[in-house]
Amino acid sequence: MSEDARNAQVVSSPALETPMRTFYRNFFSSRVATIGLVGLALIFLAALLAPVIAPQNPYDLATLDIMHSRLQPGERSLDGQLIFVLGTDEQGRDMLSAILYGIRISIIVGFASTTIALALGLLAGLIAGYAGGRVDSLIMRAADIQLSFPPILIALILLALTGPGVSKIIVALVAVQWAYYARTARSAALVEREKPYMEAAVILGLSPLRIIARHLLPNCMPPLVVVAALQVASAISLEATLSFLGLGLPVTEPSLGLLIANGFQYLLSGKYWISFYPGIALLLTIVAINLVADHLRDILNPQLAK
Amino acid sequence: MVARVTVFILRRLIQSVFILLLTSVLVFIAIYAIGDPIDVLISPEADQLERIRIAATFGLDQPLWRQYLLFAENALQGDLGRSFAFSTPAIPLILERMPATLELAVAAMLLAIGLGIPLGLWVGLRPQSIVGKIIMSVSILGFSLPTFWVGLILILVFAVQLGWLPASGRGATQLLFGVPVSFLTWDGLRHLLLPALNLALFNIALVIRLTRAGTQEALLQDYVRFARAKGLTTSRIVGVHVLKNILIPIITVIALQFGSIIAFAIVTESVFAWPGMGKLIIDSIRVLDRPVIVAYLMLIVAVFITINLVVDIIYSFVDPRVRLSGGRV
Fold first, then answer.
1. Do B33 and A160 lie within an 8 Å CB cutoff?
2. Which of A248, B97, B116, B139 has minimal CB crowding within 10 Å?
């Protein structure tokens, strides 16, 4: 074998091709998904930096002036200092600032509920899949019962009983979502359980806790990541819907859904911007997350792809 | 065979009763968690004696489990209390709104089938065409966009900008077998169109996808090849032979969606001020009209359990695998 050939072999050897690197290359091969990820990053940045980049603190009542009520997009404030790029609402609040803060709340609620639901559902699903038998059927029956009702109905029941609030809507969204993760984690656990490495772990005499946490869990993650990515978008969408109906978040913490609801009464009189721009922000957030999630599904879980 | 089906149905019935019981306990306890109903019933100036007297009249001085039994007993007799806001019994109040919701839901289902199947066929026959790709992209949006947002855009475009259709309300109704319906009058039909389209959107997207997948699969089958060989026109092959074969699964899926449509009507009714059950429950939650909230929740859970039970029983005859796995709830 010549020197060149040996070098070429080293370069293309699978050792250098780490799973992460393959993943990155696969992900960025799709232009649509890359656009989605960049858009999502920008939205995140805007939400994170809202206190810095927003022209006005929308919740500081001292900065609001009733004279600025319902100004059209592009109008200036009375002292000429501020330009209301996206107009103002009925309290004279700058819509751009309100939207930046609104995205922040929507994203926090969406990601917090998804993370908690993922952790709980994962735990339930792994236990069900690993233990089998009675435990398995109990957990899965509970998930089945829940999945036979539409998510909005379950969230509505919980919120009707508990009243609005950030922690309450997160609880409601967790209750709606956990069953999806439990099902996915269980089916992944059932597949993984039959593989030789699990048998090896059992023969080695490792404790069940260690087997689940160190061996089963990492191998069950890819399908769960896909479900979680898709669920973030639907959690944000459901939160917006519930807030729009006045059941989700309190008026003191307006998410995008609540901003849209506030402007809804002015829609018919042609003052579209109070509802319309928060709606566009919501649309962009959901579409960006979906673009990323759809592509993640194609990469991580080819058999799920349509 | 018969014995197994009977066992299955019995098991499912017991399970349904159990869930209904669980919901009633949950709802009942939660009412207690919200606060003491006495505070709502009497004026703040009432003295302690008055409080005790009122508590005794409504049975609120009894232990919790006894109160629950009383609540359950009344509920079984169709009495879930009187609405605070309307001062009429809660159940008739909700049943009165039911026809409006059902009309909206049926209209949405018809729209989903009427628009979804032709569009799905078009895409299935020409998957590479630009129009086909546009239809598929829009159908993805139909899945992911929140219903209320789409409703808002429909109002903005068709009611505010173009002024073609009314934005809210039910319009003129006409009695049909003693039930007021909108679709028999021109005004009512105009009011019905936007909310029905809004509610149907998710299902239009669903039907498009199902029809497309079904069509593409059907086109590869031998019977299509045979029909072609026989010299039939494409429109006849698609319109008669393909459609006949793909229609049953599509109709089944859409029928299963009926419960969801009724649940999502909550959103659409609120956006379009459609006077159905969904708008009633949202209004009741806003003013904390507890008897109506409780009655609605119990009623909708009962409806869902019934729908799922019926679906399961029908499935258990059609598909024996369902019986073995225990089915849905």
1. no
2. B97
Residue B176: predicted pLDDT:
67
Q: Is B278 helix (H, G, I), strand (E, B) or coil?
A: helix
Give the count of alpha carbons within 13 A of A235, CB side only. 32
Q: Do B145 and A237 touch (CB under 8 A)?
A: yes
Element housing B24 (H / E): helix B2-34
Helix (H, G, I), strand (E, B) or coil at A75: strand
A154-B257-A116 Cα angle (round to 5): 30
Interface test with B, best of A156, A251, A274, A295 (most B CBs within 10 A): A156
Measured distance CA(B311)–CA(B294) in Å, rounded: 26
With CA atoms as reference, the chain B residue closest to A269 would be B160
The token pair at B259 is: 């419960």
Distances (CA, A) of B71 to A188, A283, B25, B52: 44, 44, 10, 20
Distances in Å between the alpha carbon of B90 and those of A42, B85, B155? 49, 10, 32
Per DSSP, B161 falls in state I
For residue B260, what are the contacts with CB-CB under 8 A and spacing of at least 6? A150
pLDDT value, residue B329: 40
Write the residue in B156, B209, B329 that is nearest to A276 by C-beta: B156
Calpha distance B209→A12 (Å, rounded): 41
Kindly state the DSSP code that residue A62 receives in the 8-state scheme: G
C-alpha A241/C-alpha A251 separation (Å) is 15
Which residues does B95 contact at the CB level (< 8 Å), separation at least 6?
Answer: none
pTM: 0.79
Closest Cβ opposite residue B144 in set A233, A240, A260: A233
**A76, β-bridge pairs:** A83
Q: What is the mean pLDDT of chain A?
A: 79
Which of B273, B106, B280 is CA-nearest to residue B183?
B106
Q: What is the mean pLDDT of residues B123-139?
A: 83
pLDDT digits (tens, 9 = 90+) for A40-63: 888 888 888 877 777 777 776 666
The two tokens of residue B43 are 């004026």
Residue whose tokens read 């009432």: B46
Please say whether the beta carbons of B278 and B269 come within 8 A: yes
